[in-house]
């Protein structure tokens, strides 16, 4: 499925940012393994899955498999993991490796993903060349004419936060100036790292005015925007997305909108996907994609529940959910259909150990949605919300179209 030169010039989406190699051992036991992961303990596992990871790989490959024409931009070294990254991308489609910069003498990024049954994932991550990635690694002359620019995982890329977000904001501003609509994804930095203590309110205030669609997880945003609330809910144990009140989610989204982005999409794990958009959404973009969707997307508040599925692994599920959302935008679907498609692609992802191994073409995803695929309950009361049976989505109190349909 390699693209020829002519089709490469008509790229739909640029996916830029963090890329690595994921090493994912397959756990043999189906019993919760938290009591086994102790010092001095040997845990027998099955064969490991080797795949590219990070936002560039996960979101980019998922978009490719959904049917989008995508170009990937990232950075690796000339070492074993760097060469493996390029090979794994090339095995899927030779075009996917073309935009990845390979440099000499650095260390490529890799992640060991421990995904035992019954407990949350543990990541052993080497950021490598992601820390030295810069705006100079982007061949801007080759991406002109693309419809959408997505950047992922700046908290795992030192050069994107160490200067207070100047370089990241420059990248987003340049992409905007070239007529692309912009989406931005984040990542959770480890406690004790420089990224964890960075001034994320300042960085986001600087960057979000250039972002049309901001797509972080709830956990990431609480940690970055309201550290006290994050610590409070973290101490309660369990799934943070299930214990954070609905009002806190709404307040957080409103605060992010006030920082300047057009739309906030909060990933809530098994609780689904939350969307809040502003009145000014996408008005500052001259991109054809943005102009076609701006009116029906203004001032919306929606919550899409997940689909019921057999979960094998959750690594990269959020990235694949983002890919589904971007694909809906590219196809100029409405908010409800785009949100539903996003959580459906996320469900396809978790049915396999690796992030993108289960992603199917968009038509296959849609056929499964319309076959009566069961949705999971939200698991919390949504005061003042409306359930839209035909669309399979909740509409919130702030949604401008709620009263028109009920």
Outline:
This protein has 406 residues and is of the alpha/beta class. It has helices spanning 5-8, 54-66, 80-92, 140-143, 158-161, 166-177, 200-207, 218-225, 227-235, 240-243, 246-258, 288-297, 317-330, 335-350, 362-369, 402-405, and strands spanning 13-17, 20-27, 45-53, 70-77, 100-103, 110-114, 122-126, 148-152, 181-185, 213-214, 263-267, 273-277, 301-304, 386-388, 393-395. It is globular and about 55 Å long.
Strand content: 15-25%
First-residue to last-residue Cα separation: 46 Å
Q: Could you give me the name of the CATH homologous superfamily?
A: Ribokinase
CATH architecture: 3-Layer(aba) Sandwich
* Oligomer class: single chain
The whole-angstrom Rg is: 20 Å
Mean pLDDT: 88
Low-confidence stretches: 1-8
Discrete helix count = 16
- CATH fold-level label: UDP-N-acetylmuramoyl-L-alanine:D-glutamate ligase
Counted beta strands? 15
Q: Order of strands in the sheet with the most strands?
A: 5-4-1-8-9-10-11-12-13-15-14
Helical content class:
25-40%
Characterization of the model:
The protein is an alpha/beta fold and 406 residues long. The protein has a single domain, classed as UDP-N-acetylmuramoyl-L-alanine:D-glutamate ligase, CATH 3.40.1190. 35% of the residues lie in helices and 19% in strands. The protein contains 16 helices and 15 strands. The protein has an eleven-stranded mixed beta sheet with strand order 5-4-1-8-9-10-11-12-13-15-14, with helices on both faces. Strands 3-2-6-7 form a four-stranded mixed beta sheet. Helix 2 crosses helix 13. It is globular. The N and C termini lie far apart (46 Å). The N terminus is likely disordered.
């Amino acid at each position: 499925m390699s693209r020829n030169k002519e089709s490469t010039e008509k790229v739909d989406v640029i996916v830029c940012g963090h890329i690595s190699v994921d090493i994912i051992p397959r756990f043999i036991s189906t019993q919760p393994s938290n009591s086994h992961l102790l010092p001095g303990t040997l845990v027998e596992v099955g064969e490991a899955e080797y795949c590219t990871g990070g936002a560039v790989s996960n979101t980019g490959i998922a978009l490719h498999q959904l049917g989008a024409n995508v170009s990937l931009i990232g950075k690796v070294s000339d070492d074993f993991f760097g060469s493996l990254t390029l090979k794994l991308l090339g095995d899927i489609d030779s075009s996917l490796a073309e935009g990845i910069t390979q440099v000499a003498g650095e260390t490529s990024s890799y992640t060991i993903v421990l995904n035992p049954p019954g407990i949350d994932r543990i990541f052993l991550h080497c950021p490598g060349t992601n820390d030295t990635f810069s705006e100079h690694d982007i061949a801007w002359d080759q991406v002109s004419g693309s419809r959408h620019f997505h950047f992922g995982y700046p908290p795992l890329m030192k050069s994107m936060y160490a200067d207070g977000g100047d370089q990241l904001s420059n990248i987003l501003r340049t992409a905007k100036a070239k007529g692309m609509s912009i989406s931005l994804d984040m990542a959770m930095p480890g406690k004790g790292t420089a990224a964890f203590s960075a001034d994320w309110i300042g960085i986001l205030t600087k960057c979000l005015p250039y972002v049309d669609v901001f797509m972080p997880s709830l956990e990431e945003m609480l940690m970055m925007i309201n550290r006290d609330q994050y610590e409070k809910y973290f101490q309660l144990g369990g799934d943070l997305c299930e214990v954070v009140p609905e009002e806190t989610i709404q307040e957080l989204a409103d605060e992010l909108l006030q920082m300047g982005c057009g739309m906030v999409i909060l990933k809530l794990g098994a609780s689904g996907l939350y969307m809040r958009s502003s009145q000014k959404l996408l008005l500052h973009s001259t991109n054809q994609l943005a102009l076609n969707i701006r009116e029906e997307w203004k001032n919306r508040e929606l919550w899409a529940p997940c689909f019921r599925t057999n979960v094998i692994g959750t690594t990269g599920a959020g990235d694949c959910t983002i890919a589904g959302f971007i694909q809906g935008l590219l196809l100029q679907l409405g908010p409800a259909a785009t949100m539903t498609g996003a959580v459906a692609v996320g469900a396809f992802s978790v049915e396999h150990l690796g992030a993108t191994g289960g992603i199917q073409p968009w038509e296959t995803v849609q056929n499964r949605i319309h076959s009566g695929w069961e949705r999971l309950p939200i698991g919390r009361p949504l005061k003042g919300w409306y359930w839209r049976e035909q669309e399979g989505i909740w509409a919130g109190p702030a949604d401008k179209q709620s009263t028109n349909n009920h």
